[in-house]
Structures are given as C-alpha cells and as structure tokens.
Design goal:
By secondary structure, this protein is mainly α. It is built from 13 helices and two strands; from the N terminus they run αααααααααααααββ.
Length: about 400
C-alpha cells in the first residue's frame, strides 16, 4: 500500500474550508448591500442613488439611449428610460439576493453551487420544490423567504410613492401653465401676471415657493424622478421652475428694493434657487453649493458675475415687459447687476438640468442647455458636463 500524505490532505481540507467561509462571507455582503439599497431607496430615502440603483440606471441608460433609429425613436426611448430602470430595480434586488444566498448555501455545504442556486431561488420565491437538509440550513431558508416577501412588500409601497411624487410635480406644472405658456417662459409668465394684476399678489409667489420646495423634497429623495417624462408634450418641470426663478430675478432687478411687490419674488428665490441647485447636485451635476439670498444681496453692487445670458438678451426682455406695463428700473446698470447676481445662483443648475432632461427650448431658461454625459456606473463622481466655454462670459 502507498503511504497516505496527511499533509497534502490537510492542506486540501483547509483550502476547501477557506473557500466555503469566503463564499459565506461574500453571500452575506451581497445580501447586506441589497437590503441597504432597498431600505435607503424606499423606507428611508437619502439624497442621491444607492450603488445598486446607480448601476441599474447606468446599464439601462446604455442599453436604451443611443443614436440608432433616428431622433423620434430616440426621444421615445428617453421617455421610457426612467420607468424601465425603476421597474428593473426590484428585479435586480431579487436576482442579487438569489445569488447572495446561493453563496451562503454553498458556504454551509448545502450542495454544489448549482444546487445552491436552485435552493436559493426556491426559498426566495417560496416555491418549495427544493428543500435543504439540516436545521441550520432550514433557518437560512426561512430567512431568505422572509426577505423575498419583504422586497415584494417594499415594491408594492414604492411604486405608488414614486408616482404620487410624480403627480405632485405634474400638478405644479399644470397650475403654472395658464400663465407661463408652453413651454413655460419667464417673460410670458410676467406679462400674463401683469395683465391679470397678479404680479404683486403674494399668494401666487407663495404657491410657486411651495411647489419648488416640494420639488426639492421629492427629486432629492427619489432622484429617478429627474428622468421621468412629462405627461404633456412641450411641457417641462425644468422649464417651469426656470420660468418662476427667472421671473423673480427680473422683477427684483426691475423694481426698487423698498417696493412691497418684491416680497413674493424674494421669498420664491430664497427657497427656489437652493432647491433647484440641490436637485441638480443630487442628479450628479457638478454644480456649486447654493448661496443664500441674504448673502447674495450684499454683492449686488459689485461687478456682475459671468452668466449664460447676454445683457442684450436681458434688455430685450425688459423692453418687452415694459410694453406690458412692468416698470423699468431707474438705473439699468444696477438692474443688470442685480439680475446677473441672482441668476448666477441657479444658472448652472438650470442649464445642467435642461440638458439632463432634454427639456424643450424656452427663452432665457432652457434654450441654452449644457451637454450632459451618461450616468456613471461606478463611483460617486459627478457627471461629465460640457458647459460650452463660449457661453459663460456674457456680461
């Protein structure tokens, strides 16, 4: 008889044991990441995408958004991108949990890896056609089945929450539509408000402020909403938000600071400008942190910052509004400085979101979009954005 090499056998046994331990730990890591993603997405929404959600949206974007089929088909795919990615996310969670528990079952020696995958799928979807042996493995099966039922329950509650926030956004756009037009325009908004004698009505501006705050809350908690299409062609939540903010900025530059009519626009900008910036930052756009309106007003006597609006464009809008009855500022240079400083607080955010959402073109707001790159698959870095260096220096 040949002598038994006990050292080789012991080394092989240790290698197998290490493999099973590693498999068990990898499975726990995958399941933990899925549970963290589900909880942060549905139960306790945080600012931005989780890792799994970011990967899901990135892959879906690369599969659906491309240049094949012409502009019409591309526009159709863009409108479907966010809903498809959102519905795919729970599917990714379920597949990931199946794979994670397959590693766990393999780690506790429930069979080959193929048998472990079958056992995991049977447990997660409560099918019951595969049954483990041993009390410890039975308990793992119970835990996986509970997680599967929990993910289904989260899905049932998640979709209505998302669409409730989506309907709230669309409601605000529709309320602005009779005054702001299609697509929403700041100049048209001010002209129609002046005709209806609502320019100095604080109720109008308070409603706009509330909508912008709600917009921030929903679009930072559920950033997928940024990609959701509008219910009606020609409309855009970015256009509407930009029209409200730009109308407020024009009024502040045109009227004297002591005028009571400024209270509404100032109130709107105090909440609306930071809201738009935070939405843009949550969506991954490289936008600077918002400046408070009280701090901003201390700088309005300084040289105007670089913005994407030319002074000639601004003055053309002022001429149009003056014909509608909105008074001109006594000092045009001061009015331009005030407008430029106020506009600088949300200019990049507005242009970035216009490019991200492919918003329709509206004067002074979404007619100068930045070119935004694809969502990142890995890492927390900002999206690639081409701001077009020929635009910013427009004093």
């Amino acid at each position: 008889m040949r002598p038994v090499d006990t050292r080789a056998r012991n080394g092989q046994t240790r290698s197998v044991l290490a493999l099973h331990i590693l498999s068990f730990l990898v499975g726990l890591l995958i399941v933990g990441l899925v549970l963290a993603s589900a909880l942060k997405t549905v139960v306790l929404p945080r600012v931005g995408f989780t890792r799994i959600a970011r990967l899901t949206f990135s892959v879906t974007h690369r599969l659906m958004i491309h240049g094949w089929g012409g502009d019409i088909r591309r526009a159709s795919r863009i409108s479907l991108f966010a809903p498809v990615a959102l519905v795919s996310l729970p599917l990714v969670w379920m597949i990931s949990v199946t794979v994670g528990f397959a590693f766990i079952f393999y780690g506790v020696e429930a069979g080959t890896f193929t048998q472990s995958v079958t056992l995991s799928g049977s447990s997660l979807f409560t099918l019951g056609f595969a049954k483990p042996t041993g009390a410890g493995r039975d308990w793992i099966t119970f835990v996986e089945a509970t997680i599967g039922l929990g993910l289904v329950a989260l899905l049932i509650s998640y979709l209505p929450t998302i669409y409730g926030a989506y309907n709230g956004r669309e409601k605000g756009v529709k309320l602005l539509h009779p005054f702001a037009g299609t697509p929403a325009s700041s100049v048209e908004l001010l002209e129609r408000l002046e005709r209806a004698q609502f320019t100095s009505d604080s109720t109008v501006w308070t409603s706009c402020s509330n909508w912008l705050v709600d917009l921030q809350q929903s679009h930072t908690s559920f950033p997928a909403l940024c990609y959701f299409p509008m219910m009606e062609d020609g409309q855009s939540w970015v256009c509407s938000a930009g029209a409200v903010l730009d109308a407020s900025a024009i009024l502040i530059g045109s009227l004297d600071f002591s005028d009571e009519a400024l209270r509404g626009p100032l109130f709107t900008l105090a909440f609306g400008s930071p809201a738009l910036v935070r939405i843009a930052r949550t969506a991954g756009l490289p936008v600077a942190a918002p400046m408070e309106i009280a701090t901003l007003l201390d700088h309005v006597h300084e040289a105007p910052p670089a913005i994407s609006v030319r002074r000639q464009e601004y003055e053309a809008c002022i001429d149009q509004l003056a014909a509608a009855g909105i008074p001109r500022a006594a000092d045009p240079d001061s009015a331009w400085r005030v407008y430029a400083w106020v506009r600088s607080t949300y200019d990049d955010a507005l242009r970035g979101l216009a490019g991200l959402t492919d918003a329709p073109s509206a004067t002074l707001t979404t007619d100068r979009p930045a070119k935004v790159g694809r969502p990142r698959m890995f890492g927390n870095g900002p999206l690639r954005v081409d701001w077009d260096t020929s635009v910013p220096d427009r004093r």
